[in-house]
Specification:
- By secondary structure, the chain is of the alpha+beta class.
- It is built from 12 helices and 21 strands.
- The model is unreliable at about 1-20 (pLDDT under 50).
Length: about 425
């Protein structure tokens, strides 16, 4: 599931460094969505049922037969490579051997118990509580690249429990984001009756990042994350009341609204603004977002589903290979045929949202850690930003081949009619 992320480190997205000229890449583009072009959606209405089908997929009665080596893909790598704790001390192989034994893989799919997430929680590929780092003394590694992290599961996310670890601290679960270990304390088993009730429930989605939800006693329940959806029972006096997994909650209607949102300029830019300038979070590090998680959470409130990794996201929409084009040809093609806010631009390990052209420059919204330098150093960005596609072109430390534009391989469109497809294919053939 995470193979794509390794490209992310080695080719473009990376850790800080950058020599004496400064650790941070100057951001010349305004970090404000209000200066961006207006969004004119090409889709009149989005069918949120497709999103819900993916969201509730772990509760399907038919679990496909799987190869355990594929499901527990990370184990072999931990035993064959060197990794480090956060204190930069090498992790002994005995640590991984113990964790893998505790994973209790022989119990895979012995339970098949439907459950729900009761607290925002990390989905991990190994049942451990510590960060697992690779080469922390090298630029492009170390914090925040915790290799054990795969994703963050929001409160009220449906999962299927395969089995528990031997120490019962973790459960191995299937979520719409894939397989992984979550803390047992953040799970609640649900009956088939509750499953059917949830599938038919009214839903809300946050419109304010990190808004607080409270329980019936006014105590903290969870942090609402943009991109999540929650079931609710009633809206009363400007407050949504609901429950999931036995956790009753209430959240202000100023912080959430009914799912799905209308796909328009005002609402899309509000969601983007909520996520703009958020810290970069590899695999959900510190409950933040990496590039593909950002894309998922921008579109989820509108009922548009995207898979977890960047390559799969580029394949989910109508995809066109642009890898053979020069940088100038790519820029021209994107400016002419790219649909602002409905076009994903992909390179190995990274994905961005094309948001249109301003003053003749193509712009993208993405979550990025940094840009590789000629000496294998890194110039830090470390958050979700609006940038040009050739950010770093004027920095002598950055090689042309490491520019975002140089590495772009594909354009993916949310919606194209047959005439638009034909024009794009013809344009690519000419080049």
């Amino acid at each position: 599931m995470r193979f794509f992320l390794y490209f992310f480190v080695f080719f473009f997205l990376c850790a800080c460094g950058g020599g004496n000229l400064g650790h941070y890449m100057p951001l010349k583009t305004p970090q404000n969505v209000n200066f961006l072009p207006k969004f004119s959606p090409s889709i009149a209405q989005i069918d949120a049922q497709s999103y819900k089908k993916h969201f509730f997929a772990p509760w399907n009665d038919n679990v496909p037969k799987l190869d355990e080596k594929e499901v527990f893909w990370a184990f072999e790598g931990y035993l064959s490579k060197d990794y480090y704790f956060f204190n930069k001390r090498k992790i002994p192989k005995s640590f991984f051997e113990k964790a893998i034994s505790n994973a209790n893989t022989q119990a895979f799919l012995t339970l098949k118990q439907k459950a729900i997430i009761t607290q925002n929680t990390a989905l991990k590929n190994l049942p451990v509580g510590t960060a697992i780092l690779q080469e922390p003394f090298k630029d492009g590694e170390g914090i925040p690249f915790d290799y054990v992290l795969d994703s963050i599961l929001n409160f009220a996310t449906p999962v299927l429990i395969s089995h528990y670890t031997q120490d019962k601290r973790y459960a191995f679960v299937l979520s719409e984001a894939g397989w992984g270990f979550v803390q047992s304390a953040h799970l609640k088993s649900v009956s088939n009756l509750r499953v059917e009730h949830y599938k038919k429930a009214k839903l809300i989605t946050p419109i304010v990042e990190r808004a607080l939800a409270y329980d019936e006693n006014g105590e903290f329940a969870f942090e609402a994350r943009v991109g999540a959806i929650y079931p609710y029972d009633e809206l009363k006096n400007g407050v949504y009341y609901g429950q999931a997994g036995g956790v009753k909650f209430q959240i202000s209607a100023s912080n959430a609204t009914e799912f799905p949102l209308e796909f328009d300029d005002e609402r899309l830019k509000n969601q983007m603004a909520q996520l703009l300038n958020r810290p970069y979070g590899w695999g959900g590090y510190d409950d933040e977002r990496d590039c593909s998680a950002l894309m998922r959470d921008i579109f989820a409130p509108f009922g548009l589903y995207l898979p977890r990794n960047s390559f799969a996201q580029s394949m989910a929409w109508e995809r066109f290979d642009i890898s053979a084009l020069s940088n100038s040809q790519k820029a021209t093609l994107i400016a002419r045929y790219g649909k602002p806010y409905e076009t994903l631009l992909y390179l190995k390990g990274h994905i961005v949202l094309y948001v249109g052209a301003v003053n003749g420059e193509n712009l993208a919204f993405h979550s990025v850690w940094g840009i590789r330098t000629k000496d294998d150093g890194r110039i830090l960005i470390a958050k979700s930003v609006i940038t040009t596609l050739d950010i770093g072109k004027d920095d002598k430390r950055v090689a042309k081949g490491d520019l975002l534009l140089s590495r772009l391989e594909a354009m993916s469109f949310l919606s194209l009619n047959e005439q638009e497809k034909a024009k794009l294919r013809k344009a690519l053939e000419k080049r």
